[in-house]
Amino acid sequence: MTSSTRNLFNIQYKSGAPSTFEEAVLSKYEGLSSYQRPRTLLTLLRTNAVPSPMEEGILKGSLFHVQNDIRRIAADLGRLSSDGDVEMLGHDVSRQLHNKLVLLEEIERDHRLPLLLIRRIPSEILMEIFSYTASFSRNILDTSSAPWVIGQVCRSWRSVCISMCPSLWSSINIFSDPCMHKKDARSLLQTVLSRSRQHGLAIRLPSSIGSITWEQLISHGERWTNLHLTDVGLPELGYLSHLRGRLGTLQECYLEFTCEGLDFIDVFDHTPALKEIKVYGLDLNTLFPITSTNLETFVDDRDEWLTSTSIHDQHLKVLQASPNLKTFYAPYRCTAGRTVFPRIIKPSLSALTVCDNSLIRSLSLPGLEFAALFNDCWLNLADCLADFQDMLTQSQCNSLTTLEIYDVLLRPTNLLRIFELSPTLTSFRYQTHEWAAQNDDALQSIFRGLSDSAELVPRLKDVVLELALFNETNIHCANYTMVEMIAARRGSSLQKFHLTASVPSEGFCDLGEDDIERLRDIKAEGFDVAITSCDSLDIDRSRQIYV
């Protein structure tokens, strides 16, 4: 044994010196085996309560002694190891020392828990933290997730969760039917509704949740602020009919209909606070009146796009009665729709998706930023470009940044003039399932204009052309003129040019080998260009990748 080790373990015993070196080492810490955590600590660990000043003093004093013993054992083991005498202790003694160290470290962690700052966070701040979790989607009937588990941490958290955070219980999200088959689903939902107090309710439901659940929710209809329903059939409409005139606080509504043969849905004809409504899957002639001067987003996406004059008139009323409207999506076509004159002036409307000529002729949109002329691919090509150009002119609109055109006939003069009227345009997308010679002429006119004048849409960043054609046709827009445009614009704002064609025959483009090689060089320099074609009868089989 080295002299330093002898000095380290120079221990005095009342009944004489220890019989072995191992006993001398272990005797220093024999009291640790029976170490008891203070009763104060055990109580705080059980309740998760905040320690009082006196309890905090007791804990800190006890923690001081625990940490001191940890340092003693660690120091002894370190010295023994450095002196090479650890082997003299034997494996059993070494193991006992390490076990005592582990025990003390566990006790130290227990002491620190009640002293953590999170226990001292004021209830008002806890309330804000808990309320933040309400923004995350969750199944409100799942008691293993928030907000249920928050109330299981400690008494104070439970009090804050139940008494001070009604917003935690205001998102009624039920994601699947099986959760509704729980034996306690009704009582769980009743508890949630009770704890939400008078806070607004956000309702998100699947289909077939059961009449009892609907009755529970409908009884709180005056508090609904958000409604998201998928697979809305006749039973769901029956329940919703009880809410007519009671949805005064509803702000957002999303509905996917699956029922047919409906003439009139009047549940939402009095929703003064409504800001956003999105309706999908309604029949051709189903009227769906809404009344809200606060409306900002209106989406009506029907299964059929050739609609009646009554639907057209309803959409005109929405436009006229919504001074704050920002987004309008209703890409129907009405052959006998009326045109409103003078035009409906909507300075707030920035996003428009339409296709009907009479509707376009009825609008003046000086602040338009996004426009999509969206026609059903199963209908004949729509011819609304001239009316859209005229609307931009009459509106004195120079704010358009995105133009998307789907299955609309391109007229060369109109398309070029629209570009001239849109100095802030950054994105252009064209998609069609039917081709006409005028489309070729229009696109080549645009390519020439972009090549010849840097002042034409000087901020244009991306051009995407998608041709999904099922009939034999001749396409000539992919030619030398297109390559010249890309070469001329890639040094300025243009960053992307994609042309994808699904055609039933080979040779859709008129690019020569020199043109293709030039585009490949441009692509190698970092420009995002892609010219591809595939078989429209087998779109998964790539036919040709030009660039």
UniProtKB/TrEMBL annotation:
F-box domain location: 119-173
Pfam families: F-box-like
Organism domain of life: Eukaryota
InterPro entries: F-box-like_dom_sf, F-box_dom
Protein known as: F-box domain-containing protein
